[in-house]
From TrEMBL:
<comment type="similarity">
    <text>Belongs to the type IB topoisomerase family.</text>
</comment>
<dbReference type="InterPro" id="IPR018521">
    <property type="entry name" value="TopoIB_AS"/>
</dbReference>
<dbReference type="InterPro" id="IPR001631">
    <property type="entry name" value="TopoI"/>
</dbReference>
<dbReference type="InterPro" id="IPR014727">
    <property type="entry name" value="TopoI_cat_a/b-sub_euk"/>
</dbReference>
<keyword id="KW-0413">Isomerase</keyword>
<protein>
    <recommendedName>
        <fullName>DNA topoisomerase 1</fullName>
        <ecNumber>5.6.2.1</ecNumber>
    </recommendedName>
</protein>
<dbReference type="Pfam" id="PF02919">
    <property type="entry name" value="Topoisom_I_N"/>
</dbReference>
<dbReference type="InterPro" id="IPR013030">
    <property type="entry name" value="DNA_topo_DNA_db_N_dom2"/>
</dbReference>
<dbReference type="InterPro" id="IPR036202">
    <property type="entry name" value="TopoI_DNA-bd_euk_N_sf"/>
</dbReference>
<keyword id="KW-0799">Topoisomerase</keyword>
<keyword id="KW-0175">Coiled coil</keyword>
<dbReference type="GO" id="GO:0003917">
    <property type="term" value="F:DNA topoisomerase type I (single strand cut, ATP-independent) activity"/>
</dbReference>
<dbReference type="InterPro" id="IPR011010">
    <property type="entry name" value="DNA_brk_join_enz"/>
</dbReference>
<dbReference type="InterPro" id="IPR013034">
    <property type="entry name" value="DNA_topo_DNA_db_N_dom1"/>
</dbReference>
<feature type="domain" description="DNA topoisomerase I eukaryotic-type">
    <location>
        <begin position="272"/>
        <end position="725"/>
    </location>
</feature>
<dbReference type="GO" id="GO:0006265">
    <property type="term" value="P:DNA topological change"/>
</dbReference>
<dbReference type="InterPro" id="IPR025834">
    <property type="entry name" value="TopoI_C_dom"/>
</dbReference>
Amino acid sequence: MADDSSSDDDLPLGQLKKPAAVSSSAAAASKKRAIKEESSDDDAPIKPKKKAKTSNGKAKPDKVTSSAKVKKEKNGKSSDKKPAAKKPTNNGKAAKSLKQMDKAEKISHAMQAYLWWNADNPPAGCQWVKMEHAGVSFPEAYTPHGVKMLYDGQPVDLTPIEEEAATFFAAMDPDGMHLGNPKTAPIFIKNFFADFRAILGKYHIIKDFKKCDFEPIRRYLNEQKIIRKAITDEERKMNKDSKNETMFKFGYSLVDGHIEKVGNYNMEPPGAFRGRGEHPKMGKLKQRVEPEQVMINLSECAPVPRCSVPGHAWGDLRHDPTVQWLCQWKENINNQVKYMQLAAQSSFKGKSDRSKYNKAAKLCGNIDKIRADYKKNLKSKSMEARQIATAMWVIDRLALRVGGEKDTDEEADTVGCCSLRVEHLKFDPNGEGADNKEIELEFLGKDSMLFKQTIDFGSALYTENHGMGEQVYENFKLFCKKKKQSDDVFSDLTPSVLNAHLKGIMEGLTAKVFRTYNASKTLQEELLKTEKAAGWARLTAAEKVTEYNNANREVAILCNHQRSVSKAQETQLESLGGKLQTLKDQKKTLKKMLKRLNEGNDKGLPTKKDEAKAVEKANKALEKAKEMKEKAKTNEEKIAATEMDEKAKALKKEAGELKFNQAHLWEKVPSKDQVSKKISNWTEKIAKMEMNIKHKDDNKEVSLGTSKLNYMDPRISVAWCKRNEVPIEKIFSKTMRDKFNWAMAVPSDWEFNESIAKQG
DNA sequence: CGCCTTACTTAGTAACGTGGGC
DNA sequence: GCCCACGTTACTAAGTAAGGCG
């Protein structure tokens, strides 16, 4: 399995790209025809001639197709030596028979039967030989709601297009990260209003944003939200069905005889551009994309899908097997090309993912050489060599991104290593004096995430084991000398210069490989550390998972993967703090009670106040709300039902709080025994809650998902699960298991090191 | 060669849906 | 069995890097 993954991997991507586009598409085309013939029996059920486009979608022929396919692939598979890998991927649950599966399950079953890492590769330089799909699914045309915004207090008639734009603005949360931030709100409003005015035309009465009142539309949208909340189960099912229908139609592609999932098959709908950070273009109107703007890419032999928007047609057609994309179009905000591509669990993505990790693993064998190289050059007489060496240290040790140049008129002002400016470094941030070797790095990185860390270059962390911290510090001082705050620290260093140097050291090495390498290496080392600790074997699976998450957190911190703390989270944490205090107070009360009982004074001890009443009241309200929901026909009734529901929930919450507040008490005067038992109970509860709060607090600003999804070699996690008897589902969600299907078969002693690079 | 285009990976957040505590 | 906090998924913005072109 993973071991035989052979030499394949880096082949298709790198070297052979050139002969690609034009010439090879012709060559590939002729080859394609040959292949088509060979495998035609294979495709027979899938290609009922004209309707082939919908072959992945339409109801009847499809059912035959998928089940036939399943059987075939299954048989083919059982002959190849590994039935084992299959079972755990089947959700852990007892395998369903084909008859019991719904359509989506059947398709996914069929897809799982294809193991690309055991299959032949497409011709060198090509990603596929045959590819067919249904194109993108377009959002529905805008339906006007007729709710009028106010201008200068007066309702204004708007055309549907104008109304749509106004509605995009009204849909923005006034307290959200764009309008709720006093720094970004003016940018957003300025951009939006400029585009809105352009739609309205010169002579429209709307001229001043301050006189605009979008509140009526905003209220309407909120009302719609409430109505949607009150839908019946039946309606909910219908929505799901129609969603599934478009998934069946557009969500799958046929690539070289097997089904693959498409990632983003829904065309991005129009709206207000939600750029992050202080993006200079936020608020601009993102236009609706017409089919004519879309280019689709499929094989020449594939049927061209009919465009699903009435009266429209695809803009252009391509047959380029050297690329992965199925559709592309231009977006009007930054004039960038966007793509529809296969999903993360597809073979295309799986192949490049595996090759990414193999490349990072290859770095294990070269890292000493590389560190020695930049150590030497840190003192080089050539300024360029010195800058390259210092940048490499930064990228290696601080895990910064390479940092390409950005045009701040067009994009947010964010930086990485090469684009660091003098103003982002603060020497001796704590004013500790001359021989202090601290620098505070403060800047906005990708997605405008704050990087703020004080690096003590003289500390053991950066000086021991060839850490070179002191020399790096001297270099930084040198690079910043006589420069303006706004000057680049690495004056003439660019990502291409840096990457050219890296390529000279190790084939395929680029700056971003260091992040993958360090993330995976860190995970592996952290996991190993805990496994070696005394008593490890006695831990439960859940406790082991906590340790895994701790290791994961180390990686996330290394990569500076953050998330903002939501209001809800903040209040939740606060309320937990309140609860903890209550528990502590209750414990005090219990101790006092015990003391008095010991003294034989049991008069006036607090007892439980009647709480059943409150509970009953809440339950009644809840029942009524349910009833209203079921009866509701009109919008007004639906809104009333939702309101009632919310009221009832508030009552229930209140009752719960009352219950919690006197949970330490008894109906009658308790015995000494009862009290002391409860005291020890409470001690335990308090400890548990303190742990819980600490854990939540530690995690609230760290995002574990990104590193798990993009940086940590999944084979490390799979092997860890296997040797520690932790079910893989505890670590990887369903989609992650699908994405990492190629990694599931590694043995329990698999290691992230240079030897795996040789294997492929 | 430096800049622009192309193609793909990485990223946080909003919306969604579900599993496990009451 | 219910419900909601929480994890998962969808969405699309924002990066990197290679290659082409003038």
